[in-house]
C-alpha cells in the first residue's frame, strides 16, 4: 500500500458480470455503510503507522469533525484501533489511530463481500422456490 494513494484505491475500477463498471468505495458503502470519506481514511490507515486526528486532517485536507466522525465509525466496525497519547496535562484525551494488521482487515473485507454475495444468492434461491411453489399451486387449481 506504500505507493498507493487512498484516492487511487477508492477509485479502483472493476467490471461487474453485467458489464457495469463500479469502484471499490461503492462496495464498502453497501456492505458497511461507509462514506467516501470513511473509506479514504481507512485506506490511509491501511498504509501502516499511527495517526492522530490532526495528522489525518492535514494529510487528507478534511475538518477535524469529519475525521473524528469517520474514525469513530471505523473503530466501531473493528477495522481501526486507537491508543491514548502519552501526554501530560489536562483536557480531553488525545488518541493515535492505527490498524494492527492491514492484511487481516483486507481479508476480512474480502470475506464479508463473499458473505454478502452468498446471502443475496440464497435470498434469490428462496424467491425462486416461492415462485415455483406458487406456479405449482396455480396449476392444480
TrEMBL record:
GO terms for molecular function: DNA-binding transcription factor activity. CDD domains: HTH_ARSR. Gene3D superfamilies: Winged helix-like DNA-binding domain superfamily/Winged helix DNA-binding domain (1.10.10.10). InterPro entries: ArsR-like_HTH, HTH_ArsR_DNA-bd_dom, Lrs14, Tscrpt_reg_TrmB_N, WH-like_DNA-bd_sf, WH_DNA-bd_sf. It holds the Pfam family TrmB. This is HTH-type transcriptional regulator lrs14. It comes from the Archaea. Signal peptide: none annotated. Residues 29-115 form the HTH arsR-type domain.
Amino acid at each position: 500500500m506504500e505507493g498507493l494513494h487512498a484516492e487511487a484505491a477508492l477509485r479502483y475500477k472493476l467490471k461487474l458480470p453485467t458489464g457495469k463498471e463500479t469502484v471499490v468505495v461503492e462496495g464498502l458503502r453497501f456492505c458497511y455503510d461507509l462514506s467516501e470519506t470513511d473509506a479514504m481514511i481507512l485506506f490511509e490507515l491501511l498504509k501502516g503507522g499511527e495517526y492522530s486526528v490532526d495528522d489525518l486532517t492535514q494529510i487528507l485536507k478534511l475538518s477535524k469533525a469529519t475525521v473524528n466522525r469517520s474514525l469513530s465509525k471505523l473503530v466501531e466496525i473493528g477495522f481501526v484501533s486507537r491508543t491514548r497519547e502519552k501526554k501530560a496535562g489536562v483536557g480531553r484525551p488525545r488518541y493515535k489511530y492505527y490498524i494492527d494488521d492491514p492484511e487481516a482487515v483486507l481479508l476480512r473485507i474480502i470475506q464479508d463481500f463473499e458473505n454478502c454475495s452468498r446471502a443475496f444468492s440464497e435470498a434469490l434461491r428462496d424467491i425462486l422456490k416461492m415462485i415455483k411453489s406458487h406456479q405449482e399451486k396455480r396449476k392444480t387449481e
